[in-house]
Design a protein that fits this description.
- This is CPBP family intramembrane metalloprotease.
- Keywords: Hydrolase, Membrane, Metalloprotease, Protease, Transmembrane, Transmembrane helix.
- GO terms for molecular function: endopeptidase activity; metallopeptidase activity.
- This protein is mainly alpha-helical.
- It has one domain.
- About 70% of the residues lie in helices and about 0% in strands.
- The chain is globular, with a radius of gyration of 18 Å.
Length: about 240
């Protein structure tokens, strides 16, 4: 069940004076601010002498810390259960749908890839990272981080909190999807961003349908795990 917020006491939690309202604003500042800063200023620019593996590890750690901060904000700041962001008890049906959704995205990718290549776009090109220089364990870690942290951030937190803030979950879904695509813009080519937008819309629709973040986490992790490892071990 979503938490109710309002600018007036009669409508729910007062956004300017209540502890829960202040926790909401703090969470939104974290959820919107940290990914924006990491997209604009990559950890590699913080430590110019550090190698790619170190800079990637720092970036991954920042995202894990962000997810932990949001979970703590929801539980102890808002005093809302994690089920308010789709993290209830995992259910076999939800995990099954996550597997089906992940396989569907994996089947969809080559179709989109073929269409994009036909118009001169490469959906597998990265702008700022060479996966082949990273150890396989780190690539797997990146997939786990993407599947868990991005679903907590974009679907579990931003979709739910923006939807509740504006009084319309569909608007929260749209805004979170736009932000999801935007933070990927610096790392990936234009071709891959099209797939990111399609996959993001798919995952957003999946969450709106199931309201089970475990379903999304499994689907996202499976898709990114197979995709990133395929790029890591693809022939030069």
């Amino acid at each position: 069940m979503s938490t109710t917020y309002s600018n007036t006491p009669e409508g729910g939690t007062n956004l300017t004076t209540s502890v829960k309202g202040r926790a909401l604003w703090a969470g939104l500042a974290l959820a919107l601010g940290v990914p924006t800063l990491l997209a604009l200023y990559s950890p590699k620019s913080w430590f110019p002498g550090a190698g790619q593996t170190v800079s990637v590890a720092i970036g991954e750690l920042c995202f894990w810390l962000l997810a932990a901060a949001l979970l703590l904000t929801v539980r102890f700041g808002e005093r809302s259960p994690w089920s308010s962001m789709g993290l209830g008890k995992p259910r076999w049906a939800g995990l099954g749908w996550g597997l089906v959704a992940g396989l569907a995205l994996l089947l969809l990718y080559p179709l989109i890839q073929g269409l994009l290549k036909a118009v001169g776009l490469d959906p597998s090109q990265m702008n700022s990272l060479d996966l082949k220089t990273l150890p396989p364990w780190m690539v797997i870690g990146m997939a786990l981080r993407a599947g868990i942290v991005e679903e907590v951030l974009f679907r579990g937190y931003l979709l739910e909190r923006l939807g509740t803030l504006f009084g319309q979950r569909q608007l929260g879904a749209l805004l979170s999807l736009i932000f999801f695509v935007a933070v990927h813009a610096r790392s990936w080519s234009a071709g891959h961003l099209i797939f990111v937008a399609i996959a993001g819309a798919f995952l957003t629709g999946l969450y709106l349908w199931r309201r089970d973040l475990w379903t999304n986490i499994l689907a996202h992790t499976l898709t990114d795990g197979v995709g990133l490892l395929a790029l890591r071990f693809a022939p030069a």
